[in-house]
Amino acid sequence: MKRIIFLMVVATVAALSIQAQVVIKPSAGVNFTDFSKNQANGEFSARPGYQVGGSVAFGKKVYIEPGLFYVRKSTKFVSSTEGTDNINYNISGIRIPVTIGAHFIGNEKSMVSLRGFAGGSAFIMTRIEDLDKDDFNRASWGAFAGLGLDLSIVFFEAKYEWSLTNLKKDITQIDVGKSRTIFLNAGVRIAL
Questions:
Q1: CATH number, position 157
Q2: I need a surface site. Which of 33, 55, 56, 132 has the fewest CB within 10 A?
Q3: What is this structure's pTM?
């Protein structure tokens, strides 16, 4: 019985994906990351980072879009205490977003379309400069929302992501909180 249900689900998903519009979307962009904790002895300030990768959108007016990006996030802690050094948080890793979106104006085939989207993401840290990587969580989870503008085969996206997990493992000594990131992307849409 379980096999029959599983095969029916697989057949339904396959049938829907055959009918769905498929768009490959390579892109690159900049990001600005800040941390949520307000420290008593200084403040965090966002610095530019970057991302490069791509996603695949399945659907027409409403779509689902999984993606894979290499991301470098950068934040600077500026100390207000004399004798305390400033700290640069340069974090690199793999970001895996899953987006659900809808076209408000136009659709996937229009010359101009405006769309809104939201979703969740996983960030797997691969490197952190000048700090001990073992002090940080290797994986973090996030939620995001944004808008996209499609102009023929070119697209532009802006999204804001809230981290759902703390950046550091041990928050009793130094708690930087959760990351908050603005992503700005541009890329091309390749319809299949």
A1: 2.40.160.20
A2: 132
A3: 0.78
